[in-house]
Q: What sequence folds into this?
């Protein structure tokens, strides 16, 4: 039996009759003629859970757009605004609204009107999907009722009493709040078919763990890893230097709660060591960045964080030096900063120039062997490595990142990645030697992904350093697609006042991505049609208030990091870009800062979003023209071969019993 006959025989087990095969062909052909589902792109969330939640709940303004389409001539702006807020935050908004009513009659009337509007809106947003897909999205508790209400046909009056009784029963059984909540979340789910997260869930903001929990529960999502994500991925894999970086950044942004409270990792040994080793008089440069809106902190707590910040930074510099010596292929000898210090004079010599150090207190460094950990530091590092590898919640989140994530993604003719494709100054792809072989372009990113996965899979095995060292290189190396600079001047920013030493030169990619030819070259390198595809990029905040445009290279390149992180908003002048791609084309959405959940619910404050059309489809794009459509087309071809085999008697029907 040839291979094709074997395959058709296996397929016949799923579709054992001509009737079932024909039905599936008709079903798939019909699906391919539906409008393409809406894709939602977010990047650089950086732990800002509340802002992320709001943009996710409002679909980057998509829900408000649907409300306008349906109710623009029937509801006032105030009524539409209230309806939108109800859909975003149903539980909170219902409690808020009910406080304004005087009696049950008024409450029941509001319930009836609201349910009618929500059902009408839900019918509209569900209309681009098959009934089967909508049925799978229905909440279990109210699945039957919602399905019945969504199938209501207003052109016939035969079942009017039936539908009225459903609504009346919902009210009389006191289930209206739960039903409104369920249908609101259903609308949220149907408005966006698929979510893309283009990197950097972690660091700076306070709640990356909550963001991870939300993504785990999301119905359809993919993730492209960011440089801050791989730092946590390396830490969870047992990389001591990645752990040191994670702790240093968390201390710098006053966010150690994510380590202790969210992931249950004790920092007691680090605190005890820091308290005993680093006096307050020598803490210059390590005071954490405090959120200006915070008032719930204590000076003693800040003093402790400052000392831990200094202690872990020194440990980090030591660990980095060991890797640089161990990995000559990295060509990072110029970052052996502890060798450049004159410990007696309190100066450092960089590129032949001497600079005074702002902090000369290095009690654990032996100038004769500066990269050797003290016994206390070694004990702390071992404890932290064990704790990160055995944090159940952290491992759950990082495992999900590996399962759903990639270095890059090709999706519906677009190329998604977080940082860059490293280029030389002449526009050629930058090479990196990894274990006696040179890699560049797509092959380099593929190799990076292989290394990341091996680092996690071998975290409990011997000889894992060769993978873990490369994960750290991805964080800081010149040829890293996630870093994209010639050097990371962390030491200089802590210890040298002269800002000329702080400069980190960006990879040539970041100037050349404005060029159409460069973007087309990258698309071709990854096997995409440059006439149809776009590069969707995060990582670098777009400085809109300085006139920078997120749409580059005549629309071939879209940069969607505008600064979710509060730390960037003074620089960028806004609070993030997102992207929507539906059957009508692409729209870039810019957002103003999110204030608070309370303001969003009580004052119906929505993030002000501005849309710009990037591409508009001349003909509405259908499922047939997407990656899913291409897979369905292949399935239809196979099913037609099976049908022909049935009709020719090559395979016999086996009706189900």
A:
């Amino acid at each position: 039996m040839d291979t094709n006959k074997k395959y058709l025989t296996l397929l016949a087990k799923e579709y054992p009759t001509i009737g079932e095969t024909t039905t599936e062909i008709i079903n798939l052909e019909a699906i391919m003629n539906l409008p393409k589902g809406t894709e939602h792109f977010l990047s650089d969330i950086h732990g800002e859970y509340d802002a992320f939640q709001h943009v996710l709940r409002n679909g980057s303004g998509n829900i408000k757009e649907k409300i306008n389409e349906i109710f623009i001539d029937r509801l006032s702006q105030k009524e539409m605004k209230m309806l939108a807020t109800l859909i975003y935050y149903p539980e909170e908004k219902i409690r808020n609204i009910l406080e304004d009513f005087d009696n049950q009659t008024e409450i029941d009337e509001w319930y009836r009107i609201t349910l009618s509007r929500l059902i009408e809106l839900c019918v509209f947003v569900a209309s681009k999907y098959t009934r089967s897909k909508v049925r799978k999205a229905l909440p279990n508790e109210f699945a039957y009722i919602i399905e019945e209400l969504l199938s209501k046909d207003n052109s016939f009056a035969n079942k009017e009493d039936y539908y009225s009784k459903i609504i009346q029963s919902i009210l009389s059984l006191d289930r209206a709040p739960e039903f409104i909540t369920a249908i609101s979340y259903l609308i949220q789910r149907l408005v966006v078919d698929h979510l893309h997260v283009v990197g950097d869930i972690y660091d700076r903001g306070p709640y990356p763990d909550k963001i991870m929990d939300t993504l785990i529960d999301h119905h359809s999502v993919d993730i492209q890893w960011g440089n801050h994500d791989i730092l946590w991925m390396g830490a969870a894999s047992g990389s001591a230097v990645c752990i040191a970086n994670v702790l240093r950044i968390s201390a710098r942004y006053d966010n150690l709660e994510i380590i202790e409270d969210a992931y249950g990792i004790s920092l007691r040994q680090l605190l005890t060591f820091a308290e005993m080793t680093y006096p307050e008089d020598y803490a210059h440069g390590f005071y954490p960045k405090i959120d200006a809106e915070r008032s719930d902190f204590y000076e003693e707590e800040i003093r402790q964080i400052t000392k831990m910040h200094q202690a872990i930074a020194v440990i980090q510099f030591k660990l980095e030096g060991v890797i640089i010596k161990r990995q000559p292929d990295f060509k990072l000898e110029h970052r052996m900063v502890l060798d450049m210090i004159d410990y007696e004079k309190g100066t450092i010599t960089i590129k032949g120039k001497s600079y005074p150090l702002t902090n000369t207190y290095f009690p654990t460094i032996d100038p004769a062997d500066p990269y050797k950990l003290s016994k206390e530091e070694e004990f702390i590092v071992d404890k932290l490595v064990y704790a990160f590898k055995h944090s159940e919640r952290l491992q759950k989140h990082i495992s999900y990142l590996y399962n759903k994530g990639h270095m890059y993604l090709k999706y519906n003719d677009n190329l998604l990645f977080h940082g860059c494709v490293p280029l030389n100054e002449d526009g050629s792809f930058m090479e990196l030697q990894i274990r006696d072989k040179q890699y560049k372009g797509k092959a380099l990113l593929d190799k990076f992904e292989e290394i990341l996965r091996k680092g996690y899979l071998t975290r409990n095995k011997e000889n894992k350093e060769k993978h873990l060292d490369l994960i750290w290189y991805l964080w800081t190396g010149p040829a890293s697609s996630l870093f994209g600079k010639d050097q990371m001047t962390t030491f200089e920013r802590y210890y040298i006042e002269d800002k000329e030493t702080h400069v980190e030169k960006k990879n040539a990619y970041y100037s050349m991505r404005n060029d159409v030819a460069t973007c087309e070259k990258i698309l071709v390198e990854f096997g995409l049609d440059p006439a149809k595809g776009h590069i969707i990029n995060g990582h670098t905040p777009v400085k809109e208030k300085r006139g920078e445009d997120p749409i580059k290279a005549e629309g071939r390149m879209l940069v969607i990091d505008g600064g979710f992180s509060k730390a960037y908003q003074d620089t960028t002048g806004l609070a993030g870009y997102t992207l929507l791609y539906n059957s009508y084309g692409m729209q870039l959405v810019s957002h103003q800062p999110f204030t608070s959940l309370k303001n969003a619910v009580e004052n119906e404050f929505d993030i002000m979003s501005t849309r710009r059309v990037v591409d508009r489809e001349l003909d509405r794009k259908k499922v047939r023209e997407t990656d899913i459509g291409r897979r369905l087309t292949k399935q239809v071809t196979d099913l037609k071969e099976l049908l022909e085999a049935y009709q020719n008697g090559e395979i016999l029907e086996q009706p189900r019993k």
Remarks:
- The chain has a mean pLDDT of 91.
- The first strand starts at residue 39 and ends at 42.
- The radius of gyration is 28 Å.
- Residues 299-326 form the longest helix (28 residues).
